[in-house]
């Protein structure tokens, strides 16, 4: 059962990033033997205004240290803040810049096998590592990214050999770009690569539309609201997974072992009135960019959302599959263990988002 939780609010967007807690198994679980747990928010760090360390511009990464302290990266402030397990601010480090120890839009925190706290720097195209002490942090080293997609918000992970796994993009032989995993040594050398999302899926849900921009003919990509998209996840020990949100069938890799995870959810919920209105507004806005109306676009709003919302790994290597739920309903996830078995379901508040920048343990989450 989940025992503690931390909820960190982003005042600028009024979004929640969470740490959750769970109650006892629910006998209404859809399948016998698969427990359903309810999560709740137990601790919140964040203020809507003021100048304190709990006022965040844009949270880019969350991490819990082995001693229970909470680490938060703020991409707008270009600094990393350390809080006690009870949410009291202890110290901050970093400043805007590209020198040793400086930070440029730090995101995607992780604890490396070397015991260092690593952060991906979207603005500097590198990873930097720090040793966290009781009241300060020491810069140790940086590793330069070997691609041009530094701005991706992808989890920082390490493979079974301790190599940093840098998620980026590279040109595909068939055209377009493929999302790629670069395994990097301490000196930045790329030791191995894997295609995480092939080019055929990278643009899934997008459409080429001919239009007019400032009097000039243009061919642009527009995204269909609520369409099926590629969903990917990156976890500890080199684990990674790939699927599409339009069906519950996910391939999960761990070294040479590949598991196919299939769920029983065949379709997503019907779009609510609010979702339909948001979708129509998005289509009108996109069509206006190229001098067209929404009715001119080669796609329409679907009747339903896709079955899957997103997938992500927790700190123990379990894969979470977040299902699409009706508008304003509690979020619902199914958890698959490292052997590819469905072991539990969890429900958590609708205003709390888990995913790439979260930290998720076996009993609570940030």
In percent, how helical is the residue content? under 10%
General shape:
globular
Give the SSE order as H and E letters: EEEEEEEEEEEEEEEEEHEEEEEEHEEEEE
Mean pLDDT across all amino acids: 90
Tally the helices: what do you get? 2
Major β-sheet strand ordering: 3-4-27-26-25-24
Question: How would you describe the overall organization of this protein?
Answer:
It is a single chain. This protein has 366 residues and is mainly beta. The chain is 6% helix and 42% strand. It contains 2 helices and 28 strands. It has helices spanning 199-202, 273-289; strands at residues 7-10, 15-17, 20-22, 36-41, 44-45, 59-64, 70-74, 79-83, 89-93, 106-111, 117-121, 126-132, 137-144, 157-158, 164-171, 177-184, 190-197, 206-213, 216-223, 230-234, 240-244, 249-254, 257-262, 308-313, 319-323, 331-336, 342-348, 352-353. The strands form 7 sheets. The chain has a 6-stranded mixed sheet, with no helix packed on it. 37% of the residues are buried.
Question: What is the gist of this entry?
Answer:
The chain has helices at residues 199-202, 273-289, and strands spanning 7-10, 15-17, 20-22, 36-41, 44-45, 59-64, 70-74, 79-83, 89-93, 106-111, 117-121, 126-132, 137-144, 157-158, 164-171, 177-184, 190-197, 206-213, 216-223, 230-234, 240-244, 249-254, 257-262, 308-313, 319-323, 331-336, 342-348, 352-353.
């Amino acid at each position: 059962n989940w025992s503690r939780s931390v909820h960190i609010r982003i005042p600028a967007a009024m979004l929640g990033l969470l740490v959750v807690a769970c109650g006892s198994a629910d006998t209404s679980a859809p399948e016998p033997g698969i427990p359903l747990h309810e999560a709740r928010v137990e601790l919140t760090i964040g203020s809507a205004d003021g100048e304190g360390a709990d006022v965040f511009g844009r949270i880019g990464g969350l991490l819990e240290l082995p001693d229970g302290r909470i680490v938060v990266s703020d991409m707008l402030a270009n600094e990393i803040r350390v809080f006690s397990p009870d949410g009291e601010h202890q110290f901050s480090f970093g400043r805007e810049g590209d020198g040793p120890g400086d930070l440029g839009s730090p995101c995607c925190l992780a604890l490396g096998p070397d015991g260092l706290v690593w952060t991906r720097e979207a603005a500097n195209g590198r990873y930097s590592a720090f040793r966290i002490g009781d009241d300060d942090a020491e810069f140790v080293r940086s590793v330069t990214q070997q691609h041009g997609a530094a701005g991706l918000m992808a989890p920082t992970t390490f493979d079974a050999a301790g190599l940093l796994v840098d998620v980026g993009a590279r040109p595909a032989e068939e055209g377009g770009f493929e999302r790629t995993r670069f395994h990097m040594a301490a000196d930045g050398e790329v030791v191995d690569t894997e295609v995480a999302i092939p080019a055929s899926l990278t643009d899934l849900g997008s459409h080429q539309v001919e239009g007019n921009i400032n009097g000039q003919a243009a061919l642009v990509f527009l995204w269909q609201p609520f369409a099926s998209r590629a969903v990917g996840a990156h976890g500890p020990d080199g684990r990674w997974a790939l699927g599409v949100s339009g069906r519950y069938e996910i391939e999960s890799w761990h070294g040479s072992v590949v598991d196919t995870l299939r769920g029983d959810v065949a379709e997503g919920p019907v779009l609510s009135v609010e979702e339909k209105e948001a979708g129509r507004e998005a289509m009108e806005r996109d069509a206006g960019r190229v001098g067209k109306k929404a009715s001119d676009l080669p796609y329409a709003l679907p009747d339903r959302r896709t079955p899957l919302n997103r997938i992500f790994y927790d700190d123990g290597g379990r894969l979470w599959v977040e299902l699409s739920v009706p508008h304003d309903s509690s979020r619902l996830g199914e958890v698959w263990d490292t052997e590819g078995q469905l072991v539990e379901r969890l429900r958590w508040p609708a205003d709390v988002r888990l995913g790439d920048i979260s930290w998720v343990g076996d009993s609570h989450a940030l």
